[in-house]
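During the second half of the funding period, the structural biology subgroup turned its attention to how the target accommodates small molecules. The most pressing case was ME8, which had performed well in the primary screen but for which no bound structure existed. We therefore specified the complex as follows and requested a full 3D prediction, including the ligand pose.
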Amino acid sequence: MSSCHKAYITTPIYYVNDIAHIGHAYTTIIADTLARYSRMSGLDTFFLTGTDEHGQKIEESAKARGKSPQEYADEISATFKNLWDEFGISYDKFIRTTDEDHMKGVQKAFKVMYDNGDIYKDVYKGHYCISCETFFPEIQLVDGEFCPECGKPTTVVEEESYFFKLSKYQDRLLEWYDAHPECILPRSKRNEVIRFVEGGLEDLSITRTSFDWGVKLPEELNDPKHVMYVWLDALMNYVTALGYGTDEAKMDFWPARVHLIGKDILRFHAIYWPAFLMSLGLELPKHIAAHGWWTRDGEKMSKSKGNVINPKEVADAYGLDNFRYFMLREVPFGGDGDFSQKALIDRINSDLGNDLGNLLNRLIGMSGKYFEGRVDASDTPKYYQQELDEVEASLEKLEPLLFEMQIHRYLEELWRPLTVANKAIDRYQPWTLMKEGKAEEAMALNGLIATILAKVSVMLYPVMPQVCPKIAAALGFTIDNESWQKLIKDKKLIEAFTIEKIPPLFPRIEEPLLEQEKPAETKEEAKKAPAKKEEKKDEGVALIGIDQFFQTSLKVGTVVKAEEVPKSKKLLLLQVDLGEEKPRQIVAGIKEWYSADDMLNTQVCVVANLKPAKLMGYTSEGMLLAAKDEDGLCMIRPEKPKKPGTPIG
Ligand code: ME8
């Protein structure tokens, strides 16, 4: 049983039918923030994430690509794991539902539920949405056919199935919601769940016979044509990851402190999951926290619209910690959020650059000018007790806000001490204090600012784990349980030290760093067009007339200057002579295969009449022709040297 010194934190396990996007990153980053805070505050923490790999949807996605489900699952699961590793996500375990241990644990759970009479065999007649992996009663369907969640057509299913007696748990579930007002966060979501359960629960079909990419039933049941319903399989990951049904050593982390999820899967977590746990005789999770939905520039993200945000591109361009801060600060937990580069840039320039970064610069400047970099907070309480009190009043509110999932309020409250600091400098003016010979007071003011920066960087660390240690290093301390205890719990001040100068942490961003996509189509067009658009993609290359081809101006060019685009892993910045007055600037995504030196003084083929585009802040006035396959990318070049500007065609 989990003691209060343990914290088990989970994300959903993500389907392997698609690669990670901003929504997945959002959930994972919130969970990472909580896990980091837990560890820093001395809790024994276990943070779980992973992938959900069974079910009809994955089987079909694999088939469409000519792969076996296992091959396909291996591939996509690795892309999630790699992304989280690149993002430094501090998970303790990455579970896959195709792991042997997990499957054994699920079979064990099925057996326990079967043996205690909660599972029976019958025939399922109804509608199934493969995309949502959900059964729907006829009355919930739109126009008698379409899924009420995603709008796709449902399939009529009539097959033998095992059922879980969900209806039996209706009253116990309602009692649980009632007795634990914070079991579902935000609280408004709890009311939705209660209304749904009060409406009556039907027993749940938990096996399928029409496909076989899933966990088989326990051998004792001797019914090999059934596989388990993917949601039963998936939800069980939260306990099989701790060894349920196999090696139960880690089960003392149970129950979970929090299951973090998106609002789309609340019903599964707040109704089915607690009912399964009741049937298994296990404790229920402390919190199920459902966040809202991310859209882009006000539009729903979808592959057919081409407006899905790749979290890695954003993090590479703007900095991972800045991206983390933005996502957590921008939307109230539970509400929907809109991603736009403008909003991100505003947060970086204003909150991070002006309020935090500048404060550190001011401290570096003041302490350097008046005290050779020394800071000493011994006299701070003597002169600035009121400011210290204000700061402590804000800091005290933080921990509860975090575990109530009020993360945006946590960050808002964390910014108050920064305002206190910036105001104190403006009000007491260290330069005036020095002129008036009040050096002790000026030093105490520096001590106040350093103390505030130290405390803020400790509490901001879980959100910005790369940047905050740099602030701490400049202030001469390390962020860990000891400093958290001293600066936050014991409310102490920072000790005397010499400040280390560091370069500005949040350089101002003047314009979007990622290329803006073509304007999103209107909602009306999107509604009419998506199916057609996908078809087109699958048909392969469209045929065009020669006149259309000649609308493209292709020319031979010579690279006269080549350099790397700062902070970009992919881009080179080239000046290409096309026989025009001055060379063209071209930003090319070829750095993984060619260095700047490789490109210098070589000839390339250029699409010369493309509309200019901005990439990482640089204008690109053309595109290079290249060929890419699984072995990598190679440039297309003229066989013999040609004069710059020679037309191709
Ligand atoms: O549902 N905005 O997996 P999934 C915010 N395998 N969050 C988003 C989002 C968006 N636009 N899109 C996705 C599954 N998410 C099941 C879970 S758990 C036992 C099984 C996030 O790959 C959000 O957390 O469809 C959502 O709950 C999750 O991704 C769904 O991921």
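Two results from this model are relevant to the next phase. The first strand starts at residue 6 and ends at 15. The longest helix spans residues 341-371.
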